[in-house]
Amino acid sequence: MIKLSGRIVAACTAATLIIRPAAAAPLRTDQQSFFELYKELVETNTTASVGSCTRAAAQLEARLRKAGFGDDELFSYAPPENPRHGNLVATMAGSDKSMPAVLLLAHIDVVEANRADWERDPFKLTEEGGFYFARGSTDDKSQAAIFTDTLIRFKQSGLRPRRTLKLALTCGEEGGTGSINGAEWLARNRPDLIAAGFALNEGGPGRMAADGGPLNLGVQVGEKAPRSFTLETVNKGGHSSVPVRDNAIYQLADAVLKVRELKFPLRLTPVTKLYFQRMGALRKDTMGAAMIKLAADPTDSAAEALVSSDRSFNSMLHTTCVATEISGGHAINALPQRARASINCRILPGETIEDTQAELVRAIADPGVKLTLVKEGLRTLAIPPTLDPAVIGPMDRLARKHFPGVPLIPMISTGATDSTWLGLVHIPTYGIPGLWTDPETVGTHGLNERVSIRALYEGRDYMFDLIKTYAAGGK
């Protein structure tokens, strides 16, 4: 396993941070070009309801062509059943065909944004207080813009990479009515276009320090697998004027409450162990001390209890299952004949769907409750990447160059990204470091999504050097 930087950054706890990023400095010429690309992308509505990824992809393709990319290096596709869900793949051939390619993956669609709920127009890039505000300013158009801009700069400079670089800009990651996932389509229909030794994707955010810079850089090394189950109860019913205890809704409610109380065993992976060691060292409180103790001794029940009291940390330590939907009955004056609940689980790498289902059956302990795995829309499992020195080493070395004293901390994502679809073509995928977020924007699907201007431009410089290092075949 590679040894990552051990420097510790002195920091206040998140509860006491007052984050006020400094005013943005004037942009360099290359930054101004990037800003124009980023702004155009962000201000192009790509929601599933009324937006167009096809338009956004065409705009990015035009910029790539202007930089010198030709027909044989570009592939665009929009599904006939939803022509607004367009995708784009760009390839920059390497000189050494024996070296596997590096895939840069970013989605260009965004979640819905209701103008009436936002303080600012969600589809107009607004600069305010050291941040850019807009839907997609972080998730995931910052990454898409940086990746596209990087290839444009390589092409304009005449760079001939030793290792082939591929860029996939896809639609449908956020879902929505009529959504068609572009990463899945490419994996199933044109795997040749994205074949690579490893991929860099979203999902590696660091955390903002009090001065507006990074407290740490994060690299996502794996993610939990999403799987859903249904619970269903049936009953002969009857007239509501003659109630009985044998009631489909009551039986389902009992089962749902048992799911609430279900706690899966603690599981530390090499990645999460390193995460709690490094993050614990950054904190100067009892939580930080507990994180270090738990990483050293997973049987420390007191440390587990304290660390698990944080909802985010708990999700990194355990497989989780939670009730998300419920329905039942057929008439207000009749006893219910059927009731149904949806249970959404997030399964840690190394644990199986079958084990998770068995735990649910054991916890519910009622043969009258039917438990079924939901197979519709089932994602494939992401390939669990390793702490490969050839991948992590350059990340760490360049982090020390760009952000002296700031540690690089591997993490497992508790959510799901398009990395899952790359499992179809056996590509291990890492959430690239470089950006960082302030505590208020954790959960970028919400209102007033924003990105630190400093993080965007400094992260862009870091990722440019990192991708250039991979392109050169260096370690």
Question: What's a concise summary of this model?
Answer:
By secondary structure, the protein is of the alpha/beta class. The protein has helices spanning 29-42, 53-67, 141-157, 182-189, 191-194, 248-261, 270-282, 286-296, 301-308, 311-317, 353-364, 389-402, 419-422, 453-471; strands at residues 74-77, 87-92, 102-107, 126-128, 131-133, 165-170, 198-201, 206-208, 214-223, 225-234, 238-239, 320-328, 334-335, 338-347, 370-373, 408-413, 429-431, 436-437, 450-452. It contains 14 helices and 19 strands.
Key attributes of the depicted protein:
alpha/beta; Alpha-Beta Plaits; 3 domains; 34% helix; globular; disordered N terminus
Query: In terms of structural class, how would the helical and strand content be classed?
Result: alpha/beta
pLDDT < 50 runs, ≥5 residues = 1-20
Number of strands: 19
> Can you tell me the CATH superfamily of the largest domain?
Zn peptidases
How would you describe this structure to a colleague?
The chain has 475 residues and is α/β, with parallel strands linked by helices. The protein folds into three domains: 14-223 and 384-471, Aminopeptidase (3-Layer(aba) Sandwich); 225-264 and 319-347 and 350-379, Alpha-Beta Plaits; 267-318, no CATH class. Helix content is 34%, strand content 20%. It contains 14 helices and 19 strands. It has helices spanning 29-42, 53-67, 141-157, 182-189, 191-194, 248-261, 270-282, 286-296, 301-308, 311-317, 353-364, 389-402, 419-422, 453-471; strands at residues 74-77, 87-92, 102-107, 126-128, 131-133, 165-170, 198-201, 206-208, 214-223, 225-234, 238-239, 320-328, 334-335, 338-347, 370-373, 408-413, 429-431, 436-437, 450-452. Strands 1, 2, 3, 6, 7, 8, 9, 16, 17 and 18 form a ten-stranded mixed beta sheet that branches. A four-stranded antiparallel beta sheet has the order 12-14-10-15, covered by helices on one side. 43% of the residues are buried. Residues 1-20 have low confidence and may be disordered.
